């Protein structure tokens, strides 16, 4: 079992602590949080070991799980890497691109593994259809959330949209060509609602909308590709797969047949992929343990987390134009 320590005991940190404590792949050594009052409260309530010194905790573990505010990601990860610890780091990977690239270099030099917490990659709905998403040419995403003061210290792009950016980059095998975006600050000092259009070198276009001032919650992505439409509802954990194939010469009474202007006839049919229930956060943490133990590449690498951050920052920069 890998010895793990958690940095940060806020809302998400407490979830990580519970799941790591339950996991058979990790031994939870303890946690550190700079808020001593909150840290002692968490320790008393749940029985986790509180380390009042961050360095002492890092010296006692193999893996450091960083669930702190984004501004502190780089400093925490740097300390962990210097001690030869593997790092799991919540999204976004760091506050700046320079910090992310520096972490990449340090991790490679030290030979440690890192994974970024882009949890939607482990959403059971996405896992159920990701192998069916092949060369999508148009993608549309909506990630809407009711207002919550937690997270408003960063633009909605880094808070919410970055989830969809990472998913899109994972299925589009092409470099970004151009980005156009707009964002509006309504309640916060940074944009609360944003729309971005990403054009890729291979011709794929992705249109992303994110809001944290919506009256309802929505996390839905739609992928359009040759002879297929795939819808993924990350919130309800449901999928819809609509496909087309050449129509049979003698279609059945209930076959759905379309004919275009050129006379080409296609049959529409539906697929129902298996959606296997899971705890996405627990799965991302445990697959990281597997990558360490088996010396394989993590599912969401530091490099991929850096690419998602790069695109997110390009979107934010586009607001100014």
Automatic annotation (TrEMBL):
Residues 2-118 form the Gfo/Idh/MocA-like oxidoreductase N-terminal domain. It comes from the Bacteria. Residues 156-216 form the GFO/IDH/MocA-like oxidoreductase domain. SUPFAM superfamilies: Glyceraldehyde-3-phosphate dehydrogenase-like, C-terminal domain, NAD(P)-binding Rossmann-fold domains. It holds the Pfam family GFO_IDH_MocA. One of its GO terms (molecular function) is nucleotide binding. This is Gfo/Idh/MocA family oxidoreductase. It comes from Flagellimonas allohymeniacidonis. The lineage of its organism: Bacteria, Pseudomonadati, Bacteroidota, Flavobacteriia, Flavobacteriales.
